[in-house]
């Protein structure tokens, strides 16, 4: 059972309920939360690429804001997976490797942007409207847009929790944070997201 990342006030807020439905954007969510059949054949990189590439691209878009950068991050993550394939134990280890590689690649992308004088941020009106995030309801779009105003660590934790459906322990593994830091960061991020959304509608 996936443990709940802490909320700011004990009860689930409207922002958390909306965030919780972001899992519907994740094409591999069910695959990641169902145990494989006992007689399942060994996983291959081709199969992982086919079933999880779009999931990873969508996650990267939520972290770096534009499709081209997200695709670059994910392509490099799969290249790293190929190089390290022999050292991975099973399907779950491979998916965990990909998640961590996407988080780290997104961090590197954001650092490069901050140091690049000529970087022009993508138009917020089109950055997340690519195929991967199309068809969002107005409520979902407001949450996704507000994610871009959070600190990078806060955004990582919320994306992994609500889009990826990960537990605190899994988020800690993917981000290199302690479980306690994951929980406190999630609580502050949800509260901050609520403030951002209320300000946007005031």
TrEMBL record:
<dbReference type="InterPro" id="IPR007627">
    <property type="entry name" value="RNA_pol_sigma70_r2"/>
</dbReference>
<dbReference type="GO" id="GO:0006352">
    <property type="term" value="P:DNA-templated transcription initiation"/>
</dbReference>
<keyword id="KW-0804">Transcription</keyword>
<protein>
    <submittedName>
        <fullName>Transcriptional regulator, LuxR family</fullName>
    </submittedName>
</protein>
<dbReference type="InterPro" id="IPR013324">
    <property type="entry name" value="RNA_pol_sigma_r3/r4-like"/>
</dbReference>
<dbReference type="InterPro" id="IPR036388">
    <property type="entry name" value="WH-like_DNA-bd_sf"/>
</dbReference>
<dbReference type="GO" id="GO:0016987">
    <property type="term" value="F:sigma factor activity"/>
</dbReference>
<dbReference type="Pfam" id="PF08281">
    <property type="entry name" value="Sigma70_r4_2"/>
</dbReference>
<dbReference type="GO" id="GO:0003677">
    <property type="term" value="F:DNA binding"/>
</dbReference>
<comment type="similarity">
    <text>Belongs to the sigma-70 factor family. ECF subfamily.</text>
</comment>
<dbReference type="Pfam" id="PF04542">
    <property type="entry name" value="Sigma70_r2"/>
</dbReference>
<feature type="domain" description="HTH luxR-type">
    <location>
        <begin position="147"/>
        <end position="200"/>
    </location>
</feature>
<keyword id="KW-0238">DNA-binding</keyword>
<dbReference type="InterPro" id="IPR014284">
    <property type="entry name" value="RNA_pol_sigma-70_dom"/>
</dbReference>
<dbReference type="InterPro" id="IPR013325">
    <property type="entry name" value="RNA_pol_sigma_r2"/>
</dbReference>
<dbReference type="InterPro" id="IPR013249">
    <property type="entry name" value="RNA_pol_sigma70_r4_t2"/>
</dbReference>
<keyword id="KW-0805">Transcription regulation</keyword>
<keyword id="KW-0731">Sigma factor</keyword>
<dbReference type="InterPro" id="IPR000792">
    <property type="entry name" value="Tscrpt_reg_LuxR_C"/>
</dbReference>
<dbReference type="InterPro" id="IPR014325">
    <property type="entry name" value="RNA_pol_sigma-E_actinobac"/>
</dbReference>
<dbReference type="InterPro" id="IPR039425">
    <property type="entry name" value="RNA_pol_sigma-70-like"/>
</dbReference>
């Amino acid at each position: 059972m996936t443990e709940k990342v802490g909320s700011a006030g004990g009860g689930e807020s409207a922002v958390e309920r909306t965030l919780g439905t972001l899992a519907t954007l994740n094409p591999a969510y069910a695959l990641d939360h169902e145990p494989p059949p006992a007689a399942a054949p060994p996983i291959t990189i081709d199969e992982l690429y086919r079933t999880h590439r779009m999931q990873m691209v969508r996650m990267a878009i939520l972290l770096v804001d534009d499709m081209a950068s997200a695709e670059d991050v994910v392509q490099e993550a799969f290249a790293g997976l190929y190089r390290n394939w022999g050292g991975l134990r099973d399907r779950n280890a491979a998916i965990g490797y990909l998640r961590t590689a996407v988080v780290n690649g997104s961090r590197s992308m954001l650092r490069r942007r901050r140091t690049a004088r000529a970087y022009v941020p993508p138009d917020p009106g089109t950055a997340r409207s690519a195929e991967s995030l199309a068809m969002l309801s107005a409520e979902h779009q407001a949450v996704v847009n507000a994610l871009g105003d959070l600190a990078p660590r806060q955004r990582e934790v919320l994306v992994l929790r609500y889009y990826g459906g990960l537990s605190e322990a899994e988020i800690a593994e993917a981000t290199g944070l302690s479980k306690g830091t994951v929980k406190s960061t999630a609580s502050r991020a949800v509260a901050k997201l609520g403030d951002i959304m209320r300000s946007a509608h005031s």
